[in-house]
Amino acid sequence: MDESDPEIVFNDDGICNHCLRYDRLLAARVFSGEEAKTKLKDIQNAIKQSSKGKEYDCIIGVSGGVDSTYVAYLVKKVLGLNPLAIHFDNGWNSEIAVGNIERTLDSLGIDLYTFVIDWDEFKDLQISFLKASTPDGEIPTDHAINALLFREAAKRKIKYIINGMNFATESMFVKRWAYGHSDWKYIKSIHKRFGSIQLKNYPHFSFFDLFRWTFIQRIKVISILNYIDYKKEDVKELIEKELGWVDYGGKHYESVYTRFYQGHILPVKFNIDKRRGHLSDLIRSGQITREVALEEIKAPSYQDSLKRQDEIFVKKKFDLDDSSYLEIMNASTKNFRQYPNNEKAVMRIKNLVNFMREKGFYSK
Questions:
Q1: In terms of residue numbers, what domain contains 193?
Q2: For site-directed labelling of 149, which of 82, 103, 159, 212 has its Cα 20 to 30 A away?
């Protein structure tokens, strides 16, 4: 990590706040050995018990990426559950991602429900975030995915959502890099300021919705990868062999927009290289050394030829001419705090949940 996170803080020993947070929360989020086996068995039994007489045991999200593909394999082949796979099609799927989803679900015999977003609405929202000039351009997709999973679980009376979040390798939280995953007020404020099309079909949720789903309808979210010894390179090898999965060349690059946004817009406009966070997590989890990570960060985000191809595609899909695109890229950068948001409430909830995890009252 470096000072591209303007809120990074180091203690007297030279250890940053991200590492201190990781050390503090790791034991409450990640389990190993016999404890992990016991907890995983309890989760398996609870899901089967909750789904008696229902068509599906649980819901999983699928994107064609490593984590969601392995979750599908783990849930079906290892735990013996019958999940419903849900895919949020935001119009940016790469061909490789689509192929990965099809091969995975066909191989495992998992049913798929795909939600196709209204493109005009979603385009208007994504362009609104570009015009807002904050580094939060992926928030519209992330928020909608979570809303969709909860919405479908509630509609189908399914009590468990199993996701592919793995704290050991995905714990980095930098608010100034990406804020708003659960803040509908912030998303609405950006769209109200810069958008022009009413969001009639966009999946979203408020704090009240989250409360209703979680505490009234009792829908639980399980980060299943926190209960196994998760080594990403080993997992890639397994799903390539067992499911015919194809590597797409970068973290979250199963989406063309994510590939371009993280590989070009963030580093060029905002001086943010999200690989720093991803690699830092791998260092902390002992999967690579700091020396290896420092060498990897020197390499380009992705090939120039592919970047040029993606740039042309993104501008065309957004109906942006060169002048409009350059205006967006050259605009002064801002951050989420310059727009209406619910940061204080979001952080109070996050801190409360983390406190409950540490005390053993809440697991996810």
A1: 34-250+332-358
A2: 103
- Tell me if 76 sits within 8 A of 108, measured CB to CB: yes
54: left (phi over 0), alpha (psi -120 to 50) or beta: beta
Instruction: Find how far residue 164's CA is from the centre of its chain.
Output: 8
pTM for the whole thing? Answer: 0.92
Decide if 185 is inside a domain: yes
Residue 277 falls within a domain, yes or no?
no
Count CB atoms within 10 A of the CB of residue 35.
Answer: 10
| DSSP code string of 94-107 | -HHHHHHHHHHHHH
Q: How many CB atoms lie within 10 A of CB 219?
A: 20
Render pLDDT for 223-266 as a digit per residue (tens, 0 to 9). Answer: 999 999 888 889 999 999 999 999 877 666 778 999 999 999 99
CATH code for position 133: 3.40.50.620
CA distance 186 to 173: 18
Q: How far apart are CA 362 and CA 22, in angstroms?
A: 18
User: Coil, helix or strand for 286?
Assistant: coil
